[in-house]
Every structure is written in C-alpha cells, then in structure tokens.
Design brief:
Layout (H helix, E strand, L loop, with lengths): L1 E6 L2 E7 L6 H12 L7 E4 L2 E2 L15 E6 L7 E9 L2 E8 L4 H12 L10 E4 L2 E2 L16 E5 L17 H4 L8 E10 L2 E8 L5 H12 L6 E5 L2 E2 L16 E6 L2 H4 L12 E8 L2 E8 L4 H8 L9 E6 L2 E2 L16 E7 L2
Parallel strand pairs: 1-5, 6-10, 11-15, 16-20
Antiparallel strand pairs: 1-2, 2-11, 3-4, 3-5, 6-7, 8-9, 8-10, 11-12, 13-14, 13-15, 16-17, 18-19, 18-20
Length: about 350
C-alpha cells in the first residue's frame, strides 16, 4: 500500500509499504530520503504516537494512509523545493527551510548526479535574486514549492562539486527493507484524452508500468509508446535510469488508434449520410447515419449494437446532452464526429 508523509501541512514524500512494515522501517525510509536520523523523527497517526517496535497494522493504517512527521526545532520546517535544470528537467527536493544555499547546491548535485553538469559553480536564481552560498533559504523567503533555476556557465574544465551534507551517515548506504520503498508521482499526457497521474516505484521498468497504464486507460501494453523529449523510450529501462523524478511528465502514445478508429475514406458516398463514431466506456465503434436522423432514431439504432445490449441511452456531443426530438445536424454533429453514449440499465 502507499503511505504519505506529511510535515506541517506539506506532503514530503510517498512510500510503498506493507501492512506488516514496522514503524522503525518507515523511519529508515524517511532517513534515507530526507537525511533525518530516526531518533529525531516522531510519527503520529490520527493523534496517536507510533512506537518503533510496532507495525502499521497495529494502528489499523489503511491504504493511502498519511502519517504526520514531527521534528526537533533545529530542523525548522522541511519544505519541497522545485529545482529547474532546464525546461524539461524539474526536480522536487525536500530540504530544511533554514538550510544554507550551499547545502541546497550540494543536495542538487547528489540527487541529479549528471556527469555533464557542474553545480559547484552554477548560479542558483530565485525570483530576481542570485542566491549566495552562505545565506539561508528563509532569508530569501523561499517557501513550499518555490522554483529555483540553475543557471550554468561554460568553463574549460570541470571543478569538483561541494561535498553533500548528510545528517544521517548511518543510513546513507543502508539498503531499505523490501516492503518500504520510495514512490514518485508521474504525469502521463495523451494526445486524445485527459492527462492522468500514477504513483510509481521508480526502480521498476516501463514494461511493468505498462500493465498499470493498461488498467488505467484500457490501452493494451503492446500498443503503448512512451515518449520523453520527443524520443521513444525503451520499455526495458526504469524511471530511475531515465532520470524521471517526482512530478515529471511522460507522453503516452496509443498506437492502436489508427487501426481501431480509421478515418473516413474520401470518395463517393451518400451526401445525406455521414459516419459517426460512438464511445461506450473504453470502446469506440462507427456507424453510418442518415444526416436527417433524429437523436431518437440513433438511440433506437444503437439498441441492436452488442455494446449497448438494449439499455436506455443518453447521447452527448462535446459534453452536451442531445435532445431526442432534434436531428444530428441541428445538434451540430458532422461527418466523423464522436458521440459519447451513457447507458442506464433497468
């Protein structure tokens, strides 16, 4: 199940856990992600303090549960900050609101880890400020989800980056327990549908994620193509290997559209008729309809289609319900139009 970690009203991260995962394992995962030692973490659920030795099941924490994280005063507030490396590369990094700019710079280098990026000498820009390494983020009034731009300079030689700060050396190299993994939110964009968001394990390859996408969209795995920065992506690669992080977007192409929903061929046809596409749930089919047909005529014709199976129907065109007494032409429906069918079963 998925577990959200909330701190002072802001969601810092999402973890994948099991019902028998211990509270201490959750703290270890938080330590790995946020670099805060478990001893400094206090977790509560609905006002109840969570003991390290107990499991999540002991507290009846359900799917998509949320834990409140409390920290000592020295940590101030942990805030998610967006860091823009380029228009296509934006990372969400949790960090203390009183952290220095140098600490943020080191954290960027650690999390991004691109060999062709030298963050040691890059300018960090927020609003109209160039951030100074010795100053703290709260001095610039940097808050939740503030966007900081990395402005790099061309140099003949690479300079060594600053050492990343680490408040949790004991957990820096420790492998997290299998039932406790960090999850990320990834947005999927479709050319012919609304975008959607999935919470995914970044260590899984796209061929595994394709199964989740099929359950969400109905697009078969073999017809899915994932596109990043204008290029098709190998489904054997993981989100981590593709540098996909929290809040990033991936374009989803449906290769079955050309075969399932063919466009009407140009050529001689009945000038009084037209081809209309009907959407019933996840299925789409076409029918030849006379141009002077009323909406009621179309509803009666649909009764014989196996996707409708005799149910009472309402028809919608461009999200507007069609009146049964009007003709399709009066409703603005033209050749190649798409009508959505809503079925009411008795």
């Amino acid at each position: 199940m998925q577990l959200r970690i909330i701190h002072r009203g802001s969601e810092l991260l999402t973890l994948s856990v099991e019902v028998d995962t211990s509270v201490l394992q959750v703290k270890a995962a938080i330590a790995k992600a946020l670099r805060i030692p478990p001893n400094d973490q206090t977790l509560t659920f609905k006002g109840v303090y969570l003991e390290d030795s107990r499991s999540l099941n002991d507290y009846e924490i359900a799917k998509l549960g949320a834990l409140e994280l409390y920290l000592p005063l020295k940590y101030q507030k942990i805030i998610p900050v967006r860091v823009a490396i380029s228009p296509e590369e934006v990372y969400s990094i949790p960090i203390r609101s009183n952290a220095t700019v140098a600490e943020l710079r080191a954290e960027i280098a650690t999390r991004v880890g691109h060999q062709n990026h030298n963050f040691a000498n890059a300018f960090l820009v927020y609003s109209h400020w160039i951030l100074e390494d010795l100053r703290r983020l709260n001095e610039y009034e940097i808050g939740d989800n503030a966007c900081i731009t990395v402005a790099r300079v061309l140099e003949p030689e690479k300079q060594p980056s600053n050492e990343p700060y680490d408040y949790c050396d004991d957990f820096a190299t420790e492998r997290l327990p299998a039932p406790c993994r960090r999850m990320i939110s990834v947005h999927f964009l479709k050319e012919d549908g609304d975008p959607f968001t999935l919470i995914l394990d970044p260590s899984k390859p796209l061929k595994i994620i394709s199964k989740i996408v099929e359950e969400k969209t109905g697009i078969p795995e073999e017809n899915q193509t994932f596109i990043i920065s204008g290029r098709d992506v190998d489904k054997e690669k993981t989100l981590d290997s593709l540098n996909i992080t929290e809040g990033d977007s991936v374009y989803l192409s449906d290769n079955q559209v050309r075969t399932i929903y063919p466009t009407t061929k140009r050529g001689p046809m009945n000038r009084n008729g037209m081809v209309i596409y009907f959407e019933v749930g996840k299925e789409r089919f076409s029918m030849f309809i006379q141009g002077d047909s009323t909406v009621k005529d179309v509803q009666q014709k649909l009764q014989n289609h196996p996707s409708v199976k005799g149910g009472k129907t309402d028809l919608y065109y461009k999200n507007v319900r069609l009146e049964s007494r009007r003709t399709l032409t009066e409703c603005g429906v033209s050749n190649g139009g798409v009508i959505k069918v809503k079925i009411h079963y008795l």
